[in-house]
Amino acid sequence: MEKSVGWVLSAIFLLVWFSLATLLGLYFDQLWMALAIAAFGLIAKHYWNIYWLNHWLRHSKKMSPTLTRGVWGHIYNGIFQAQTKSRNKRKQLSEIIGIFKAGSEALPDAAVVVNNKNEIVWCNRLARIELALNWPEKHGIKIVDVIPQSEFIEFIQTKRFEFPLEITSPANSQKILEVRIVPFVDSNLMLLIRDVTRLTQIEKMRKDFVANVSHELRTPLTVINGYLEMLPDSANLPPLMVNKAIAEMRTQSVRMQTLIEGLLQLSRIEASNERAFDKLVNVPQLLWQIETEAQALNREKQHKLFFDIAPQLCVYGIESELRSAFSNLIFNAIHYTTDKGVIEVKWQMVKDGARFSVKDNGDGIAPKDINRLTERFYRVDKARSRKTGGSGLGLSIVKHVLTHHNSNLKISSAVGVGSDFSCEFSPELTFVTSKPIH
């Protein structure tokens, strides 16, 4: 109603304007001149309003329109209302995009969207971690360049997405990923990627568990049974021999308990469903606690222990698992380094994220043994390992913890010089606090 009244008033204004021009023209006997002047004045007024409209749209910082009467007032108000609607729609769209981003980051799977040229147009944080994907810095990178495995390339090209595909993770060769592809809007594709390492390894774990446990428990059980057979005749045996038998059985029992606890811990890590990328771990505080325990363990060995810990450097992960991995590496160095040695523990920021290392000046490890150190129950020196109470599971636990955190154990060693055990965590898992942690 208001708009109709406005346009009627504008029409009345034009009628009155040209009527006055006509009367003045007839009065001065210059009708055409008067009408021309009236038309020119009207055109000049419109051009003046066009100029201010352009200034308002392109240069003015005011959202509200200039106060103008007549038809130009309706034009200004119409544009202002259109801008307001557009601004509200953009706000709603921004909120929807924010909800979508938050939802995608909460997905338990890695998600990647590619266009019809197989170029990555979007991915969530878990995808950047699982695929070692530097996006959006590498804008336009193709998914086949991120996952260059032949079976995946064939999977993409054939477009037969009825069944998922299992591939080796490009970020970690120890991980198996299941890839599902579903059509997305505008000929795009969405890749949903899940870590299925645990499922593919579970049967192998069962076989290894039975074989390893039966082998490792056989020796202590044989010793205990031998002494137990001897004890019924203990009345005829010297007290010294009886005490020795009891002490040896206690030692073997402790060894079996240590072995079983190590196996249970390893099984828990391998079977864990806990996401390693959700919780922030205060690594400096964790290492300071381990340092206290290491100093107590070091009383007999009398090593020189040096801890160089970056006080603001944290990582996303599972605290109990990282504690187990770090303490295993530090305690191993204490156990297996010759007395009064030097052990350096470092936690520092590096170019590619965060780095943890334990360096000693012990006997070192031969090249032929290095690649087998993380195997269950593998020992370089079986006699020495059993003497120190080693179960042969420590480095295997370390390996599985680091695999769970998209990292690898690196071993550098030379016989007679010493060893350096280290691992690195990607920038996606690294977090630097604003203030040092105390």
Task: Pick out its properties.
4 domains, elongated, Helix Hairpins, five-stranded mixed β-sheet, 52% helix, nucleotide-binding, two-component regulatory system, 438 residues, Beta-Lactamase, phosphorelay sensor kinase activity, alpha+beta, transmembrane, Sig_transdc_His_kin-like_C
Short description:
The protein is 52% helix and 17% strand. It has 438 residues and is an alpha+beta fold.
Please count the helical segments.
Answer: 13
From the helix content, strand content and strand pairing, which structural class follows?
alpha+beta
Any idea how many domains? 4
On the 0 to 100 scale, the average pLDDT is 80
What is the count of β-strands? 13
Major beta-sheet overview:
5 strands, antiparallel
Order of helices and strands: HHHEEHHHEEEHHEHEEHEEHHHEEE
β-strand percent reads 15-25%
Q: How large, in whole angstroms, is the Cα Rg?
A: 38 Å
Catalytic activity: ATP + protein L-histidine = ADP + protein N-phospho-L-histidine
Keywords: ATP-binding, Cell membrane, Kinase, Membrane, Nucleotide-binding, Phosphate transport, Phosphoprotein, Transferase, Transmembrane, Transmembrane helix, Transport, Two-component regulatory system
Domain Histidine kinase: 212-429
Enzyme class: transferase
